[in-house]
Design a protein that fits this description.
The complex is a heterodimer of chains A (211) and B (651). Chain A is α+β, with helices and mostly antiparallel strands. In chain A, 52% of the residues lie in helices and 10% in strands. Chain A is built from 6 helices and 4 strands. In chain A, helix 3 crosses helix 4. The radius of gyration of chain A is 42 Å and the shape is rod-shaped. A two-stranded antiparallel sheet of chain B has the order 1-2. The radius of gyration of chain B is 28 Å and the shape is elongated. Chain B has helices spanning 10-13, 17-25, 36-47, 50-54, 56-62, 69-94, 98-105, 110-139, 162-166, 169-178, 193-209, 214-224, 227-240, 245-253, 263-276, 283-289, 297-346, 358-368, 370-376, 383-388, 393-406, 411-443, 453-468, 476-486, 490-520, 526-553, 580-606, 610-620, 628-641; strands at 557-560, 572-575. In chain B, helix 3 (36-47) crosses helix 12 (214-224) and helix 3 packs across helix 22 (411-443). Chain B: It comes from Cyclopterus lumpus.
């Protein structure tokens, strides 16, 4: 009796191994870069971590696939390397010899990607599913572009500056005219006298040049 | 050497020394500097522009590093300083803007002033477009993360837009988001409205700073001339604390003495000195004409030369600390990417290959599995290539520097600081530029005399803004490059040459020496005599001839941003369309030819007898020869009075 049970177990694991192989059509390769992600606080990859991975994937299949009760045993792993990369396939809970379709696995992984990442303290870059590109975060885009605000501030300041300068020159001119009118009485005689002595054609504003 | 062309009536056109002394005591209505500091800061700001940050370091590094300083400093002293003193002295003596000065020396030379004005206008147009781009980047720096760190996503959200993916985020941001470049200068593609808004901001800022002439711009230079030095110091300290900065400085200053034999090194040094001093724009003549008559302009010229030389080297050092940092970052990233590729391909544990044993590991793997390694497409990471890529012009400021800033902690702050510095450098140069446009416009009576300074400035800025919309098109980048290459090169050299000939041989070097003795107290020494008469004109002539020879030999080509080209993401080199030759003639030929054409026009239409030529004059050259009626009368009188003098003039 015992040898029959052992035989069955051996056969089933061998069967499972045959389902999972590198390059399997319904399988995916996973690659982890724990050292580059965590540096000093990196954990060692061992059997327990692998168990966690299989459990997380089973969770993903349960929640985001057809609702069947996937178990840890349904996630079969093979070809582990020291890089920390391996292949996995997912078998159906109803029939252990059937593999779940690639697209259903992909969908489940995509939807639960952030949960899987956080279970291992990794990111999209450091926990890679080769063949499943991560859905990228949209770039941060605030409602009002900040540059319009800066532009508005600058234009407002400059506009105010122009108005202030124009008003002050107009005020200055009015004031000068008022002061000038008070003195015009005595001035004209002096101007006529100085014309006779000094040649006024050398004043700077005159474009007239004499040969 | 007494070679002076006959120039009758010169004394009647200019103020005598006694008149100048009298005018010093009177309160004229010509603008004046508040103090010497304002004048010096304005000149420093005018000379130190964006070119010191993004042109000089590139020249320095490509022409032998530390060895380039030798031709640069030699030509600074032999070519730049004499011309500088010439412009300062002639402006201070004749007390007029550029058109007025040349017209006073000889009315046939008014063309020199007109050429200066045209060049200032054309250069000012594209220079302010650069300011508009800098403003765009400045406005966009007030956010975290900076917008040029991210690519937009493609439609299904799994990757980036291919144009951004294949080039880089900073390239994409500059060529697509900021400029929305088309693929050719002929393809205008419509107006890109963010650039229009930035152009509006740029011209309004210029208008408000120059609205009362040097009265307002003189106050603004306290900020725009001093702030860049402070920011450069901050960047120097920050740069030196970054990893890899010293490799940048070493790269910059490593002397390669063989470059000194290459004539191109000397030509580039000479051209750079010429443009660095903003000579022949007319702005310096105007600025020094507002000085008191006994201002020591010799000392000013020497001080300004020293400041310009020092600032060029200072800015180059700062620039290359940042470039060294960026190159080191890219090199490290390149090595890490290669390591990751190797680890992934051979499924090795992560710690197997590190940066220290990368070389040995690569060689070992290459020897054991050469086919696999070949198929991996490992990139070669070369520090020298990284240090020398894209380090000139707009590429330096908007691509290399912005990328380096994104890698510094606290990037928005550094970005704001950097673009404020570029803005100040550009605006202070534009003050001189706008002076070189507005004052000749007034001298030539192209604008009504009763208009106040504010209206003149406003109208000039408004018209310039409308013309600048040419650069707001999708092909605007290519137009700016065209203007930069042709409007700001040959015409300036030609005008500089004419200026020296005019002062030394038409105004008379003896008279000029006496003027300097009157103004400063002593005659200029043998150094100035030799450089003014022979050395500086010779240098400028040689540069001009070589430049024209090389330009006419080459086919006119330009670089375009074309996502469909094979060299993408590098810029593709394409030939200009044939109608560009007409535009090049307009940009380079018209200002250069303004001098002989004006003289010819005047010779033909003014020297004819009264009756028939009166109508011709009024129709042809009415607006630019306002003095014609008066001159006609005086000419007849002086012809009778000065019977002993030679009547015919060459110019």
């Amino acid at each position: 009796m015992l040898w029959k049970v052992l035989l069955l177990l051996g056969l089933s694991s061998a069967w499972a191994q045959k389902l999972c192989s590198p390059g399997a059509s319904d399988g995916y390769k996973v690659r982890l870069s724990i050292n580059s992600a965590l540096g000093d606080q990196a954990y060692v990859w061992n059997e327990n971590e692998m168990f966690l991975f299989r459990a997380t994937l089973a969770f993903a299949m349960r929640t985001y696939s057809d609702g069947q009760e996937y178990d840890v045993a349904n996630v079969v792993v093979c070809d582990e390397t020291p890089r920390v990369s391996f292949w996995f396939v997912v078998t159906s809970p109803l029939d252990a010899s059937l593999l779940v379709d690639k697209r259903r696995v992909e969908e489940a992984v995509r939807k639960s990607r952030s949960r899987i990442n956080s279970a291992f303290l990794l990111t999209d870059d450091t926990l890679e599913f080769i063949g499943i590109p991560p859905t990228l975060e949209a770039p941060v885009a605030p409602d009002t572009p900040p540059w319009l605000i800066a532009f508005g501030v600058v234009m407002g300041g400059v506009g105010a500056g122009i108005v202030v300068l124009l008003v002050s020159s107009v005020v200055q001119k009015i004031r000068k005219k008022r002061d000038g009118e008070e003195e015009t009485g005595g001035k004209t005689e002096n101007e006529a006298a100085s014309d006779a002595i000094y040649n006024m054609s050398f004043s700077d504003d005159e474009p007239v040049t004499q040969m | 050497m007494k070679l002076v062309f006959p120039n009758p009536g010169l004394d009647n056109r200019i103020l005598s020394h006694e008149d100048l002394d009298r005018m010093e005591k009177e309160e004229g209505d010509r603008p004046k500097w508040d103090n010497k500091t304002q004048y010096m800061l304005t000149c420093v700001g005018f000379c130190i522009g964006i070119g010191n940050v993004w042109r000089f370091p590139y020249l320095c590094q490509t022409h032998g590093g530390g060895a380039f300083l030798i031709p640069y400093l030699i030509l600074l002293v032999l070519e730049g300083m004499p011309l500088l003193l010439l412009e300062f002295a002639i402006g201070q003596r004749l007390r007029k803007g550029s058109v007025g000065v040349w017209r006073a020396i000889n009315p046939y030379l008014t063309g020199v002033g007109i050429a200066s004005m045209l060049v200032s206008l054309l250069v000012g147009l594209y220079y302010n477009t650069l300011i508009a781009w800098i403003l765009w980047y400045l406005f966009n720096s007030f956010q975290d993360p900076l917008p040029w760190t991210q690519c937009p996503l493609n439609d299904n959200g799994t990757g980036f837009v291919p144009e951004c993916q294949r080039s880089s985020t900073v390239d994409y941001y500059f060529y697509r988001v900021t400029l929305n470049s088309s693929t050719s200068i002929a393809d205008s593609g419509g107006i890109h409205w963010p650039i229009v808004l930035c152009l509006l901001a740029a011209w309004t800022v210029m208008c408000v700073c120059y609205i009362r002439g040097i009265g307002t711009s003189g106050k603004a230079v306290y900020v725009t001339a001093i702030l860049p030095y402070i920011v450069l110091a901050i960047f120097l300290i920050r740069g030196l604390t970054l990893k890899g900065s010293l490799s940048g400085i070493k790269f910059l200053f490593t002397p390669d003495v063989n470059e000194l034999i290459n004539p191109k090194t000397w030509l580039d040094a000479g051209a750079q000195v010429f443009y660095a001093f903003s000579l022949a724009w007319g702005g310096l003549i105007s600025f020094s004409s507002y000085n008191p008559v006994h201002n020591n302009c010799v000392q000013d010229a020497v001080i300004l030369t020293a400041i310009t030389g020092f600032t060029s080297i200072y800015a180059a050092t700062v620039t290359y600390t940042i470039i060294g940092f960026r190159a080191t970052e890219k090199y490290d990233t390149c090595i890490s990417d290669n390591i990751l590729t190797l680890l992934n391909a051979f499924d090795l544990p992560e710690d197997n290959i590190t940066t220290s044993n990368y070389e040995t590991a690569l060689n070992h793997l290459n020897s054991s599995y050469p086919d696999t390694v070949l198929g991996l497409d490992i990139k070669t990471c070369d520090m020298q290539t990284l240090l020398s890529e894209g380090v000139e012009g707009t590429g330096l400021a908007f691509i290399v520097f912005t990328e380096a800033i994104t890698k510094m902690p606290g990037s928005p702050f550094w970005s704001v600081l950097f673009f404020v510095m570029l803005l100040c450098l550009g605006i202070s140069t534009l003050f001189g530029n706008i002076e070189g446009v507005v004052v000749p416009l007034k001298d030539l009576n192209l604008l009504p005399k009763k208009w106040p300074q504010e209206a003149v400035t406003g109208v000039t800025c408004a018209v310039a803004f409308i013309i600048c919309l040419l650069f707001a098109q999708h092909s605007g980048l290519y137009w700016v490059t065209l203007f930069d290459n042709f409007a700001g090169s040959v015409p300036l050299l030609t005008i500089g040459l004419f200026e020296m000939i005019a002062v030394v041989y038409i105004y008379g070097i003896d008279r000029f020496n006496e003027d300097l003795e009157y103004m400063v107290g002593h005659k200029p020494g043998i150094f100035w005599q030799v450089t003014w008469r022979f050395i500086s004109p010779l240098i400028v002539l040689v540069i001009l001839v070589f430049y024209m020879v090389t330009q006419t030999q080459e086919e006119l080509t330009y670089l375009v941003w074309d996502p469909n080209s094979e060299q993408f993401p590098s810029l593709a080199l394409v030939p200009y369309p044939s109608w560009i030759n007409a535009v090049v003639f307009l940009l380079a030929g018209v200002p250069s030819l303004a001098v002989p054409v004006y003289a010819l026009c005047r010779l033909v239409f003014v020297r004819n007898p009264l009756s028939s030529s009166m109508q011709q004059m009024e129709s042809c050259c009415a607006s630019s020869f306002p003095e014609q009626p008066h001159e006609k009368m005086v000419h007849i009188h002086s012809g009778e009075e000065a019977a002993g003098e030679k009547k015919t003039l060459l110019f």
